[in-house]
């Protein structure tokens, strides 16, 4: 996080210290909250466009442009219209990983039916030891989470001995996610330096999001990537942010307004998220 030095009146310093003592917090957290409110810039906020259930049901036409996604965050993940590639948002740039394996920076007018992003401001910066699988990775990250009832954004950087990823190929408009996933492409990368962009969502969010961990991978040279299926790595640097504010923007398209989203999509979503 960025450091800031400022001169303030003693009366404000006294009020600041009183508030820190009252909430048992830190000066940084109080000042950040005050600046965010004054400047109208949300912090620790996760912004989601549409719902996972809508995506499962085939509501996959574009409802927002990449430029609109970036107005709400500089870090996150999603997909593109007609499920044409995996979206990786990192360092304020949006990348598309196509089913062919080709990776490119998405144009600002590219359309997306689903995205989940935040203005990444990590409050954890730690090193995690070697992992042999995605399950190991999840266990290491679990140890750093303080709650099962809020959202988290996670970034892991380092050298991966193996990455197994996938990307869904472009589907016909309105195709259900489970059908598109049957034709997904899988990739295997070895000895690759890169970044995992992840979101952890609590169990209660299953009605509108992907519960648990959801990671997308992007190599340092921005030439390889995809939705993470498995990985192995040595030491990784973990940056993590607890997100206590959640905003959900629902599409106003005819396909969304008329879709039957009453069915439980958990099984189909779980199938689409895993290897086949």
Describe this structure in words.
The protein is an alpha+beta fold and 276 residues long. The chain has 2 domains: 11-39, no CATH class; 45-252 and 264-271, 2-Layer Sandwich (60s Ribosomal Protein L30, Chain: A). 23% of the residues lie in helices and 37% in strands. It contains 8 helices and 14 strands. It has helices spanning 10-23, 27-39, 52-56, 66-70, 134-142, 177-181, 254-258, 266-273, and strands spanning 45-49, 64-65, 75-79, 86-90, 93-97, 103-105, 111-112, 114-118, 124-128, 151-167, 185-201, 212-219, 225-243, 245-249. The chain has a 7-stranded mixed beta sheet with strand order 6-5-4-3-8-1-14. Strands 9, 10, 11, 12 and 13 form a 5-stranded antiparallel beta sheet that branches. The chain has a two-stranded antiparallel ribbon with strand order 2-7. A hairpin with a 2-residue loop joins strand 4 and strand 5 (93-97). The radius of gyration is 19 Å and the shape is globular. The N and C termini lie far apart (39 Å).
Approximately what portion of the residues adopt beta-strand conformation? 35-45%
According to DSSP, the number of beta strands is: 14
Shape: globular
The tally of domains stands at 2
**Uncertain regions: pLDDT < 50 for 5+ in a row?**
none
Give the topology string: H per helix, E per strand. HHEHEHEEEEEEEHEHEEEEHH
**What is the fourth-level CATH superfamily of the largest domain?**
Hypothetical protein, similar to alpha- acetolactate decarboxylase, domain 2
